[in-house]
Fold this protein.
Amino acid sequence: MSALFEGPDGQPRCRWCAATPDYIAYHDTEWGFPVDDDRRLFEKLSLEGFQSGLSWRTILTKRENFRAAFAGFDIDRIAAFGEADVERLLQDAGIVRHRGKIEAVINNAARARELVREAGSLAAYVWSFEPRGEDVPYLASTSPASIAMSKDLKKRGWKFVGPTTVHAFMQAMGLINDHAEGCVTRGEVERARAAFTLPAGSFSASAR
């Protein structure tokens, strides 16, 4: 089966986004474009954790609800959440009401604050794991880079950050250009990656 499909505008796109119009917009404007904003990075790691066992479509359609429920994924505000916030979120029908995943986001916000103090930003930490000269098979579920980052995050006390979750995060946040050859967006992503300036920071994955 071809890795591409013809979109409503006649342009070839990655086949996975044919499932729903929501995917097409996400594919064309977000997926694979490099991100260095800590809030967006933390949001995506959190939502990938919520997706575990579910489809990304389920999470994408609820994304605005998640943002409202989790203070716009402001790391400092979430780190201050307590048991009352957990109970509030468990009653919120607009999100995925899973206690373990909710508590993981709160825990991970506290761990993210620690990383910011160490690395200068969450972005500096994340981008230190960008695959360099590494052949990552198209649409693989894991990679050596995602395994390494997952292992390091778990050592630091993060939850719901397995290698598959981290790899999906890397694909989405532009550390890997996993758009299919011939996809109309692949070239745009490659140009964005070429123009991207790596975040300044003190963290080096090679020193972990």
In short: The chain has a mean pLDDT of 94. Residues 4-195 form a domain with the Endonuclease III; domain 1 fold (CATH 1.10.340.30). The chain has one domain: 4-195.
